[in-house]
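Just curious: can you write a single protein's sequence together with how it folds?
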Amino acid sequence: MKILGLSLGQLTTACLMIDGRIVSCISEERYSRQKNEMSYPKKAIEFCMKQSNISGAQLDLVAIGSEHIPADYQITKHFSSFSTRDYLRSQYEFWKPKLLEGKNPRWVDVFKDKIDTAQYPGGWDQIDFTDSQTQWKTYKSFIHKTISSQIGVSIDKIVHVYHHSAHAAYAYYASPFRKKPCLVFTMDAYGDGVSASISVAEDDRLIMVAKSTTFFIGRLYRYITLLLGMKPNEHEYKVMGLAPYAKDAYIKGPYEIFAKTMYVDGLEFKYREKPSDLFFFFKDRLEGYRFDAIAGALQKYTEDMLSQWVTNALRHFGIDRAVFSGGVALNIKALKTIGEIEGLREIFCCPGAGDESLGLGACYYAEADYLSKHRLSMEELFPMENAYLGEDTDAEAADFIRRNGYDKKYSVIFSATPRQVAKLLAQGKVIARAAGRCEFGPRALGNRSIMADPRDFGMIAKINEKIKNRDFWMPFTPSILSERQDDYLVNPKRFLAPYMTIAFDTTPLARTHFPAALHPYDKTARPQLVTALTNPGYYAIIKEFELLTGVGAILNTSFNLHGEPIAHSLSDSMHVFENSDIDGLLLGEHFLLKKLCA
């Protein structure tokens, strides 16, 4: 089976599965250079097809994650083009009239100025925005024609997978858990009418046993982010990073406000008081509370609700392992708290758990359905081996350097050794690495990363001021040699952590060895455990750094300028390198150094 998977809502993405194995996956933002790009993933599709040298006629299916995609959000590129002020405008000009004043405004009328028809040339006039049902019917037909026209696949091969079934399939089938019973939790703002679900995986088959339309953590986090003056659907991680700074005494008031609304009852979410509108409801009640107290209360409430829900499910089904997907699963601190539940033996979260992975989930769901119907072994459906699923530019790097005269502009070490890189890291230089296939998902995992010495706490300010321009309270993260995890992480259950999707408490040695790669206040870490098998080149650099310093970890942050997607191509990499104070850049194995490093 050859299946092209597509995520066509927030952060559009394409992936390809061949015979039960994901062979490529990349988001359109890596090509457009617009963070959270929502436009049709034309270039991402082209890459996936070209990388495996197949045509549309050779595809067995095109599987789209979601049965309903709002065209009005797509035409205005809601998640990628809206500023914080645009989101505020949506509250006052669309949601308030709709939810509180009994009016029926149309999104496309309120946001006429945001309409972007260039993403589908000559096609938007086919969409009827009269109501949501008509809108989807006409948009669905248009999308199918667009896909068929681009790659030459028959429209009857295009299928849609229920949003939370796609999330669940990705959470489970892409994970390393098989054979033993497992609970699968999905949780997000909304998708196909549902915001959370529970599935039971047994004998490699998924059965959805509970759904929720009342779970509101995803939307709550979105609107509190906006109330704190940050951009929803993008800066929730900043609120999570701010939360540990809040004092318990300050948290109490706003926490009680949250707790008076949604609560957990068994496997369901119910309300003591149901807000008619989340933004204005909490805007009125949280007025006068400190910003850090609100962030801290929100995070604690999130952890409490999710932990209770998961605990109840574990007891109800008698199962002791769990996997997670959906946008709320990006909350690494909540997963840390869930992981501490007594009786929970194993936990896992795949990379890019938000809507960018819906295409991956659609592939897994469709392949599992095919194997089941044909009574074939589920062993033919393979877990994700790693997240390195995008383009590999290594073969072009040397010619790119010479052709553009970078070997004249910078000092260049062709075929540099890991030790040469590690020595400069140990001397306090900041080095970027663009090597091998780029990572899928929001976390840089060594192939499109900025690396630095984690021993120096001052490195945080250096990287923030000269490269990243991040908020002062936000932590950086460590890439740790897998064999050193017991030295650095409090992980008694030995959870797997290859993708930076769960946080851990750290040991005193970690706080000595890499203070710059921990959360500055609570000293937790969101680690990537690196093995020689999954990324030999990156592992070799960290290993050489360990031989030089005794520290089996380096500081790792994504290779990009603030507000931009992770660097993808060789040109992207040079753009970041030349517009920042990064000291050195690895393009494949070729090492460019600015004069101060020569």
Remarks:
- The first strand starts at residue 2 and ends at 7.
- The chain has a mean pLDDT of 95.
- The two ends are 52 Å apart (CA to CA).
- Residues 71 and 513 are 50 Å apart (CA to CA).
